[in-house]
Amino acid sequence: MMNEGVHGVGGIVWMLIVAVLVVVPFWKICTKAGFPGALSLLVLVPLVNLGFLYILAFTPWRVGERDDPAP
User: Fold this and answer.
1) Which of 18, 39, 43, 70 is deepest in the core (most CB within 10 A)?
2) 47: alpha, beta or left? (left if phi > 0; alpha if psi -120 to 50)
3) pLDDT at residue 71, rounded to an integer
4) CA-to-CA distance for 68 and 4, rounded, in angstroms?
5) C-alpha distances in angstroms, 46 versus 1, 16, 42?
6) CA-CA distance, 27 to 19, in Å (whole number)?
């Protein structure tokens, strides 16, 4: 059939491209925030991604905290 939608090979490639375009920035944000970068894979899970976004937005980031404060 001509109307394959996202079930064809082109649809799978398109979904992989979108997944990479979403995961890579979240990976950088997670590492800058002091969290493991692998947590960015949670953005690929529906509804879990919304919870992850809220957790990332409202938890204190560990970046910028120093063990020895500058004088």
Assistant:
1) 43
2) left
3) 55
4) 60
5) 29, 15, 9
6) 12
